């Protein structure tokens, strides 16, 4: 499980750098600055959680089942939160109306919050 968590953290971090570069250089040409700011929020949260996955995967004192739950919450939270922001920012540029997926963003954020809560509980339970 640790290897999967670490690989996911590395891939999420790498994608955050790629998407951040796209947001800084390519996105400004196709959307307004407010949309670029939203996109950057998605990138920032993705990078934060990529780093946290690297920490989580490196911790040996947290029980495997707890670690697995935290991993799934963070991963799904990143996909839903950051992914929905990315799609909502570029939808008009792609000629697709994705405004109907806006409800996904707070669900993703909620998963991230629950993941942090479980991470806190797991750390408190370390003996």
UniProtKB/TrEMBL annotation:
Instruction: List residues traversing the bilayer.
Output: 47-63, 70-89, 101-124
Protein name per Swiss-Prot or TrEMBL: DUF423 domain-containing protein
- Which Pfam families does its entry note? DUF423
Q: Which UniProt keywords apply?
A: Membrane, Transmembrane, Transmembrane helix
Q: Which family does it belong to?
A: Belongs to the UPF0382 family.
Q: What highest taxon heads this organism's lineage?
A: Bacteria
Please report the organism this UniProt entry assigns to the protein.
Answer: Aquimarina hainanensis
Which compartment or compartments is the protein found in? Membrane
UniProt cross-references to InterPro entries, sorted A to Z: DUF423 (IPR006696)
| Protein's membrane topology | Multi-pass membrane protein
């Amino acid at each position: 499980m640790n290897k999967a968590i670490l690989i996911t953290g590395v891939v999420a971090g790498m994608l955050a750098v790629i998407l951040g570069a796209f947001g800084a250089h390519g996105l400004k040409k196709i959307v307004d600055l407010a949309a670029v700011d939203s996109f950057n929020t998605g990138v920032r949260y993705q990078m934060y959680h990529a780093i946290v996955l690297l920490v989580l995967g490196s911790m040996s004192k947290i029980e495997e089942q707890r670690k697995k739950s935290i991993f799934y919450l963070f991963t799904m939270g990143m996909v839903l939160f950051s992914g929905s922001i990315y799609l909502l920012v570029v939808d008009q540029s792609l000629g697709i109306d994705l405004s109907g997926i806006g409800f996904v963003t707070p669900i993703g954020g909620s998963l991230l919050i629950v993941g942090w809560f479980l991470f806190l509980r797991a750390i408190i339970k370390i003996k």
